[in-house]
Amino acid sequence: MGLHEFGNISVGSHAERKGAGEKEYLSFHDVFAFLRRNTLVIGAFTVAGIVLGGVYVLKTQPIYQATTRLVMDPEQGRVISQDVSSGTVIIETAEIASQVEIVKSEAIALDVIQRLDLVNDPEFADTSSLRTIVVGLLTSTVDMITGTTREDATTVSEEERLRHVMGYFLSRVTVQRVGQSYVLQIGYSSNDPQKAARTANALADAYIRNGMNERAEAAKRGATWLENRLAEIGAKARKAAITAEEFRNRNGITAVGSVSTLDQQQLSELSSQVLAAKAGTAAESAKLEILTKLILKDQATESDPEEVANNAQIQKLREDIRSARTRLEGLKSRYSDGNPAIAATQAEIDRLDAGIGAELRRIASVYRANVEVARTREKLVEEQFAAASRSGEDKNIARVELAEMESNANTYRRLYESILQQLSGTLQTLSFPSAQARVVSAATAPFGKSWPKTSIILPFSAMLGFAGGLMVAVLRNSLDRRTSSSGRLERELGIGSLGRIPVYRPEPRHNKGKPALPEPVQPLRSILDSPYSRFSEALRGVKSSLDAVMPASGSLVVGVTSVGSGEGKTTIATNLAQLYQNEGQSVLLIDADFISARLTRLAANTATELGLKPLELEEPDIPLISFPSMRRRDTAELPTPHSEMRRERDHAETPSGEASTIPVPLLTTNQTKQIAASHQRYGHLPALKEAIEKLRKQYKVVIVDMSGFENSADTRTICTYLDGVILVLGNSNKMTIERLADALALFGRSRLALLGVVANRSGVEDWFQSRFGGGGIG
């Protein structure tokens, strides 16, 4: 056990100490201890969560969900792509999503509500929202105050009721696509399983019926339009055909078959020959042009004419040129310019190029001849075409007009046939409209409820309660600033613990004849009455801690104080003195509580029962202790140890022969004041200081009982006279770290040795009190 200086006590928070360089490590033991301390809180919250979950499961009306499945028939108009590998037709995703929204639309919902008369269903009776109720109450209040009468209140109320029923109905409807298929799953939740199945099937029927009605209505409107259009187009087609035939007869245009006239057929053939001649001339000219460019460039190209590409002599010369050039590059790499071998090779290349040029010029002369032949043929055909054109010039305009008339008549005829075909298909659809979807599996009444699920709610509520309890425990632990934890005092204030004193429990007295002390005074002699109780064993542990700092030779002056009053410091001081006295050590108890002077008052009446004996002041003619620096108000002095020992031996045996304890000598507050200077208002403080210095030479242990230092300046001064101070915390569950730190800060820069803290009334007597505290001690 180390000594703590008040001046070294850090009153900062634990977070500030961590910021100063200290580190905390959280171990599994800390976690286990935390859970063990808060087992009741966490367990209570967990049980509360389970109970609430169970109440919710029991009180909540069960909800049953029935589902029906229908498959959509994809149409070619909606197909946007096809899988190349499998050939599967892929329907547009947006189309499926659109159908899902159509199923959940208000039109479908209104159809089902009206068919099943859900407006008057008891399940939908109370569907008013909180907002509607509040608005209705406010409206009624305003109307009552202003005297206004609303004529359409009933109509609006019915409409709002229908809207509320529809909103409640749609909130129970679920529609989703099954995977990537064309199947839609329609579900409806209700308190009645039969009603859930009936409503789900009604939704599917309403969707199919709505689609069929829409298609039938569209087909009806289309048929009406097509009939009117067909009559109009038929009249125009008939008129155009008659007009074209009359024009043909007037202009004497003879048709060859049903395609064209004789003049047109001859002119068409000549026109084809002219085009063929021009094409041949162009082809021969192109060959000549390409060959001319080839002669100028003197190199092979990818567009060589066929005669050049297939000419063996030219190909042979080109191969020889490539070989010679390869050889020339090799000679240039080995020899310098002007070498005869290089010159010979270059000459050979020039000779081969000249050969190629000569062959190309020969072929070019052939191409020029072909071009002249083609031009002559083209000219001849053009003359024939011109002659045929002049012969049919008079009928050209008439034929053009006739062709336009016939084209117009054919157009009307094709349009008429197309509209007639569409009208036939529309009339067929109208007579037997097909649905866009069909039911795959109808909904049946579910066997089990879909909500609430006991297997989900109870574990979830238990986890929620556990989490809530854990959160409350963490908040409680983080916000708990009480000094009941010795570890927290050590961490945040650097104050060690001397021990924890349990709640004093008086034992039955065996001596029936001896009068019992008043109950508030009994704890002052608990060491004598209950030597082997938990209280006595804990106090002996505190004494062992004090023995560790006691010097081998010399005495120890220990002060016992507390923050405030009523924390059991007098009980601790008295019993500690009794413990030292009964172990054979010379001990002196000093009452320095000049505010309440409890020991002084008790010693005046029940000193013998408490095992105390006030010091008797000796005559000045036989002093062993003198106070030359003080003026005495009387001739009283402190007693000598020899006279005290003699008196104690005289009373060692009781008249009945029963062994008795030696009383503890007590220096009362009145005796301290008697030896103080009369002219000094606070002379008891220097008198007490000098008495302590004198008496420590005669007693091994001097225990000083002081007032609470929070409201006593005397205590803060007396602490400077002592070797060490024991701080008693009698209400550690109510004392906070901040209050204790503020109280210790009252000592200012005083250099005092704080031996440690004694947690009085710690309640370690049983498991429950170790967590929630216990009663008090004297």
Automatic annotation (TrEMBL):
Single GO molecular function: protein tyrosine kinase activity
Compartments, record wording: Cell membrane
Protein origin, superkingdom: Bacteria
Domain Polysaccharide chain length determinant N-terminal, residue spans: 28-115
Membrane topology according to the record: Multi-pass membrane protein
Basic and acidic residues compositional bias, start-end: 643-653
PANTHER family cross-referenced by the UniProt entry: FERRIC ENTEROBACTIN TRANSPORT PROTEIN FEPE, TYROSINE-PROTEIN KINASE
Protein name: Chain-length determining protein
Taxon lineage: Bacteria, Pseudomonadati, Pseudomonadota, Alphaproteobacteria, Hyphomicrobiales
